[in-house]
Records
---
Amino acid sequence: MPASGRGLLKKLYQVRSHLTQTQFIAYGFLGMILMGSLLLMLPISSRTREASSFLNCLFTATSASCVTGLVAYDTWSHWSLFGQLVVLTMIQIGGLGFVTIGVFLSIVLRRKIGLKERGLMQESVNTLEIGGVVRLAQKIIIGTAIFEGTGAVLLAIRFIPQFGLARGIYYGIFHSVSAFCNAGFDLMGCQGPYSSLVNYYNDWLVNLTVMSLIVIGGIGFIVWEDLNRHGLHFRRYMLHTKIVLLTTFALLFGSAWLFYRFEENNLLTGMDTSGKILTSLFSAVTARTAGFNTVDTGALTDASKMLTVILMFIGGSPGSTAGGVKTTTIIVMYLHLWSSIQRTYGVNAFGRRLEDDVLKRASAIFMINLTLALGAALFIMATQQFPVMDVLFESFSAIGTAGMTTGITRDLNSWSRLVIVFLMYCGRVGSLSFALSFTQRKKVARIQQPVGQITIG
């Protein structure tokens, strides 16, 4: 290798060695977004063979890398096959995390994986301990291939008769990857711009396949490992797995019933029983950061929009392809509330007491995400005239990487789009992780300040 090349690699290694784990992940996603933006700007990426604007390419690359689903252009109508493949690649890397893919490639190439790489892997997928992260990376890649492959085959069964063999297979793969990664990108613009899966609202095969992929991708890789290890023995599961599974079950079926009640005299009118059930279930599942829709989101009642905002804010579970503040964060907050009401010591669940640091992180994540979403909504409303609910819907969709919209995304001005880009980035990297990326190490005060008293409540 030339001396200049060796010098560049040495400098890159020195820069990397001075970065914290959170900084490395945050900057890694930023680099991937910028690279994707440049690729999408190439004339070959658009159907018209004309270069697309940088801002719209940045918006699309951020949405794809952060597995959100908000789009400035209809994916099928605007992007060529090359552009669609760039988007699909960013979705896959963004969903699994570039660290996970990097560790897996190191395994394949039989390269030594050091402690720093293992620490990055632990930070990337939010595992509870550093031991076994290399084996977990293998299982994540293999499991992803199995789930996405199965989903692609099932979706192709429906798409091949409609679009032909080659196109049907491609559509099956694209939508399977997009659903598993909770991205929400679709190629159904061929049936109507921005139509998503509206034409399949009563199709059991498409709905059940997409919903299953969303849920599997959204429960988290830690839960995968626990389920694989203990099967259906609930008592043997980790506390984390128990909370995730119960919360996911309650949110899905509880919100599906609420959607049915809110929309039975609105969007569900005229549907048969099968269509009503599928639409209600799909609306509950996709709001958990997936981004697809089988009904016109803009036509939802205000009650359904508010319910969707809440679900988008909660999102999926830690260490998954989903976004949001995560199910465990919400449960920890409610457990702490219950503990305060009961006047008990510590926060307890399933015979275990949670660490104090868990409550601090949960409170920080909750408040940062809420502040960012509301702050962004106020900024957009100050610069553009949109209904309040639609703006709140858009901002919470971005910070939760949900990708759902009432239709105002394409009408956002440049400043509003940059705000949404920032929210999507923070939502994928993690709002707390993004804040921590600005600090090299913890600052521990040698001398504590005197105790002060304030009144609460």
---
Amino acid sequence: MKEVDIAIIGTRDQTALMRLAGVERYLIIDDDDPDMKEKVRGALKDFSADPLIGIIMIPEDWKEHVEDILKSIRGSKKVSTVVIGIPAGYTTEKENVKEYYQAYTRRLIGFNIEI
């Protein structure tokens, strides 16, 4: 089985937390950066083109900036990178985060995983 890297595109706090968990590939983008949308798009394209990266995390509220790229990744016929939306900030819009990620995982791989 081939090992893959995990990468995160996020704010300073989000990337710091994931780096503590062992994520070594990251890009910090500030919410107030005037070029934030372009930087997020560029980072997602770069990370998804890297064959060593298997999972990319991105804040849920930034996914609207990259919907076309996400659609292209999902529609690819080859095995591709999985892009996971992470809760933005310290709260989440999802009432039951466990159920949200179980449903997300089921949609990605076709079966349930108990968390």
---
Amino acid sequence: MYVPQGTVDFSSVVERVERSDVDAVLVLLVGQDAIQFHRAFAERELHRRCLRLTTLMDENMLLAAGPEATIGLFAAAGYFESLITPERLEFGSRYARRFGVDAPPVGNLGQSCYEGVRLLHALLEQARSVDVHAINAVADTVSYAGARGLRHLRDGHAAQRIYLAEADALEFSVVAELAEPERSTTFRQPSGGD
């Protein structure tokens, strides 16, 4: 089902899910739209028979939706505040020192923007030019470090670990690490976590 961005009333969408016999729903909504959908989904108690998976939800949206609206919600992303990796812990420590321990969570979306800036900096530093051809010529030699660990570009892409997490009240609990594309397509338990 597709809905226009800015949808506030998701009653017809959740009614359609309620009438169906689906076991899971892939949610590709962002921002307030996603929050409204998850609240409407919970009001119908659809979490009792149907899981949700999203690739577009971060901790800020989880907080805004509230714990009642996110029961049975799973998210897949390259970064979660709850990750216990040396790179994430170091990034979180620097963020807390800079903005305070009560600063809003960075979340996957904000952290992705930060990674993009780190990548751009590494590309420009290696190419020593803003010329696209010069950047492309050095792209596969570039690496950069961030909260997701050391990333290397190959064929214009930065392969990375992707995690599966379950909403647990007001945070995500990482339940598995999806293997990097060049390794395999199997599930593994995340390193350093429960």
---
Amino acid sequence: MSNTDELGPIDYVAVGFPDGKVGAQVMRRLLDLVDQGVVGVLDIEFLSKTSDGVVAIVASDVATDDGTSLAEFEGASSGLLDADDLARLGSDLAVGAVAVVIVIENLWMMSLVRSWRDNGAVLLGDGGLSADDVVAALDSTEPGE
């Protein structure tokens, strides 16, 4: 896409699987969201940590809990995640665990933005909030804390 105004909000999530097996149902749910046009996958990386502490990309070596192939996700790489990002995100992994790092475009938002634009609105900005920041803000507003 040549016009960044035509992109939905971009988010990422990193999820660890301590037993080293990615939940097949979880990955099928991601594919369902892609098929429904809710999200677009810009980048997906499967990580593990070697016995000497190095975080490595292991896409073709990852197993699911039911043996489902993850080949559909190979090649989904936008370049938004660099080696430093992946090393930081995988730093807390235990040896033998696997992490999935996903960068998504929130496509569901685009119909709302288009509707606003059709009615004269101008997009002034967008961005994400970390879950930790949201929890901290909510906790600070609770009475007696």
